[in-house]
Amino acid sequence: MNKTIIEKAKKIELLLMDVDGVLTDGKMYFLPQQNGKTQEFKSFNAVDGIGIRMLALFDISSGVITGRESEDAQERAETLAMRYAYQGFLSKTKPLEEILKDAGIKPENTAYIGDDLTDIPVLKKVGLACAPNNAIEEVKKVSHFITEKAGGQGAVREVCDLILKSRGHWDKVMEYVETAHWPSVEKHKIKIVKYSEYSRINS
């Protein structure tokens, strides 16, 4: 592992990420309902969820900034004890600024995982910019760390493990594994912001 990446990962106190193509493989499923409409479903990977919950054990917060509003994404964020869920934001710099202010965390202490063009402005501002293997080339070019796995296939877990190992928490993680004793994750109140509501309030 590149020493520069490890040094950047040592400083991380907050992990933010996109949803589609990062927490998922980018596919969207639309199932017909009895009322004639369709409902969107997303598929998430359990290993990513474990990684995010392990971060929470060591007071490393997490959140999503996504361009789509989705009940699935919100429920996933809540289940994983995330602190932030900004949905429907194609321009992601404003959500980033608000989250950093709310959390009292500097950009250099923040990591972000993105896969597409709308993620680039955020990737350029954070201390550890990450891209899943399936990200477009433009995103990979501005990222410090590119995962071996694709989005929805363990890419987020790779970043979580990198942060935990770089910050010296891995021995404790393995202690939890050996003793089969995992502390409960404290759930904080999640801040949920939807662009459809946010734009009306701020217009």
Structure description:
- This protein has 203 residues and is of the alpha/beta class.
- It has nine helices and nine strands.
- The protein has helices at residues 3-10, 46-57, 71-79, 93-103, 120-123, 137-141, 155-166, 170-179, 195-201; strands at residues 14-17, 29-32, 38-41, 61-66, 84-87, 110-113, 128-131, 145-146, 191-194.
- It has a seven-stranded parallel β-sheet, with helices on both faces. A two-stranded antiparallel sheet has the order 2-3.
- The chain starts with a helix and ends with a helix.
- The model has no long low-confidence stretch (mean pLDDT 94).
Class based on secondary structure composition and strand pairing: alpha/beta
Number of strands: 9
The gross shape turns out to be globular
Distance between the termini: 46 Å
Query: Helicity, in percent?
Result: 25-40%
Mean pLDDT: 94
Assess the beta-strand content as a share of residues.
15-25%
Rg is 17 Å
Strand order within the widest sheet? Answer: 8-7-6-1-4-5-9
Ordered list of secondary-structure elements with their pairings:
Layout: H1 3-10, E1 14-17, E2 29-32, E3 38-41, H2 46-57, E4 61-66, H3 71-79, E5 84-87, H4 93-103, E6 110-113, H5 120-123, E7 128-131, H6 137-141, E8 145-146, H7 155-166, H8 170-179, E9 191-194, H9 195-201
Parallel strand pairs: 1-4, 1-6, 4-5, 5-9, 6-7, 7-8
Antiparallel strand pairs: 2-3
Helix pairs in contact: 1-7, 2-7
Question: Key terms for this structure?
Answer:
single chain, 203 residues, alpha/beta, seven-stranded parallel β-sheet, two-stranded antiparallel sheet
